[in-house]
Amino acid sequence: MFPSDWLLEPGERGNPATRLEERRADGIAWSEGNDARPLVHGAAYFAELLERIRGMHAGDLLLFTDWRGDPDERLAGAGTEIGVVLSGAAERGVIVKGLLWRSHLDGFRFSEEENRSLGEQVEAAGGECLLDLRVRPGGSHHQKTVVLRHPGRPERDVAYVGGIDLCHNRNDDAGHRGDRQSLPMAPAYGPHPPWHDVQLAVSGPAVGDVEAVFRERWEDPAPLSRSPLIRLRELWDREDTSADELPPQGADPPPCGTHAVQVLRTYPNRLLRGYPFAPDGERSIARGYLKALRRARTLIYLEDQYLWSPRVVDCFARALRAHPRLRLIAVIPSVPEQDGRLTRPVNLIGRITALEELRRAGGDRVAVYGLENHAGTPVYVHAKVCVIDDIWAAVGSDNVNLRSWTHDSELSCAVLDRSRDPRPPHDPGGLGDGARRFARDLRLELMREHLDAQDGAEPGLCDPGTAFDAFRGTAAALDAWHAGGRHGPRPMGRLRRYVPPDLPTARRLLVTPLHRALIDPDGRPLRMRRRNSF
Q1: Cβ distance 8 to 262 under 8 Å?
Q2: Fewer beta carbons below 10 Å: N end or C end of the chain?
């Protein structure tokens, strides 16, 4: 197997302005010799992040980006609030630099005040945090990364990339009882919404690639916001909005594993003055998926917050139509995050039209599930994971929707393990590529949790058909138990078959004819839609 069969080659990223295309003397567009580890759930990620930050010394470098950061979110109990931990690092002499999405007005229930508070706490300790609104109108900075560099101790260097923000709701574990520090969501999720999420910990040369992504954004000379109101507020508050110079980037950490890792991104084509590192935007996440999906033959396993947009799922539908043995399993939220009069139908319309497209292409080879905990409370699926044929795997901040593939800033890592998996079937796709240990282990870890199966208890899950049937049977048993009044012992597993309302019903939920006119099948305002090719 050649990585170039699955990963983007030089030039295929479609953005020659980025330094990612010229970082390596050998000219390859990915890094070799990495060790990538999935951290399933916020509790696992937060515990490791706390330990790693506490082990940093003066002169070390801590870089982070986030969509939302709550300074009082505890990583592991009292005294481990993220603001305290980052400030403590800065006070020890660690160079702490952060990029937080400035957000739109908090009247839209985003995160401007929380991000401002975290930034002020970090800066009071000697760090630096920028509130970044260099996005297209209606867009966001959605990247969720932490990079830890240790000059003289490169074996400790690590980058975290994925879907987990440093904020409330995220600190949950496999029991899915929810974060005690919770934000309100739809009533079905209860006072402490159960939360399922994944972050990737990467060691090796790819750490340098993730750091380069941060540096490109940090060194962007454009003003942090073009809004006249925000600029006036900055002048009134005498805010320092200039970025201090970063220390020169050090050499990449040495190889330490068997994983080829490719950093993939989305950047929009920013109006008036584009990003200097992506003047026409970047769609490498979408292009990475398109390339990998062309080789899909047996099983696409998805965990996604949205799974919206017929235009985006069209590439999955084409793969299903082209290969009659190909199956698709998707795990998504069974209930929209918010239950408002506009947000709920928007969610449903976007999802229903996408699922209809997939089912027209794959029929009963497409299976979509929600999750619940053992108390019967729905679990909010915030993970952004895709595994194709147990070979190619991606973990990132991006969802399967048009916004993540064209409009917001996103960051994902595609992983291709050089180590074959010894468990049969050895070549599920039939292309001679062979199943790879990382991709298969990631899929099995996630599936076993949803099936309530212990590690090694379901050896047949390596087979795509057996795995597909196991999900279907587990969901059917749990659905039947609920339909029968929940009498008798609760069946094993956490899977519920996802059954959305029909599309006309969802459209009738839109509150006025004006709303109906403004909402497109992606479930997004028409003014935010951009006709960009991938």
Answers
A1: yes
A2: N
- 64 DSSP β-pair partners: 98, 146
Residue 343 in this model has a pLDDT that exceeds 90: no
Per-residue DSSP letter, 404: I
The continuous run of DSSP H or E covering 15 comes out as: none
Under 8 Å between Cβ of 195 and 2: no
Neighbours of 512 (CB within 10 A): 10
Using CA atoms, how far apart are residues 100 and 146, in angstroms rounded to an integer?
A: 12
Supply the pLDDT for residue 337: 86
DSSP, collapsed to helix, strand or coil, labels residue 158 as: strand
CB 302 within 8 A of CB 401: no
Q: How do strand 195-196 and strand 378-381 relate by DSSP bridges?
A: parallel
Residues composing the chain:
534
Pairing of strands 145-149, 198-203: unpaired
* Cα–Cα distance, 277 to 16 (Å, whole number): 8
- Please check whether residue 3 is in contact with residue 33, taking contact to mean a CB–CB distance below 8 angstroms: no
Q: CA separation (Å) from 61 to 3, 165, 219, 227?
A: 31, 20, 16, 31
Contact 378, 188 (CB under 8 A): yes
454 pLDDT tier (thresholds 50, 70, 90):
confident
Pairwise CA distance, residues 261 & 204, whole Å:
9
Q: Residue 420 in contact with residue 261, Cβ under 8 Å?
A: no
The pTM assigned to this predicted structure is 0.93
Q: What sections of 169-269 are H helices per DSSP?
A: 206-218, 228-237
And the tokens for 508?
A: 């009738």
What 3-state class would DSSP assign to 44?
Answer: helix
In the numeric block, which tokens belong to residue 387? 């595994």
The DSSP output letter for 379 is E
CA distance 461 to 443: 9
Q: What is the dihedral of CA 209, 211, 213, 219, to 10 degrees?
A: -140
Alpha helix ranges (H) inside 363-398: none
- DSSP secondary structure letter of residue 533: -
Yes or no: say if 429 and 327 are a contact pair by the CB < 8 Å rule: no
Instruction: Report helix, strand and coil shares of the chain as percent, to nearest 5.
Output: 35, 20, 45
Phi-psi region of 190 (alpha: psi -120 to 50; beta: other; left: phi over 0): left
Helices (H), 269-424: 284-293, 310-322, 343-362, 402
427 pLDDT higher than 50? yes
pLDDT tens per residue across span 201-254: 999 999 999 999 999 999 999 887 765 555 556 555 656 667 899 999 999 999
Tokens standing for 8?
Answer: 């983007």
CA distance 34 to 499: 40
Read off the pLDDT band of 505 (50, 70, 90).
low
What's the CA gap between 307 and 349, in Å, rounded? 11
pLDDT digits (tens, 9 = 90+) for 268-313: 998 777 899 999 999 999 999 999 999 999 999 999 999 988 889 9
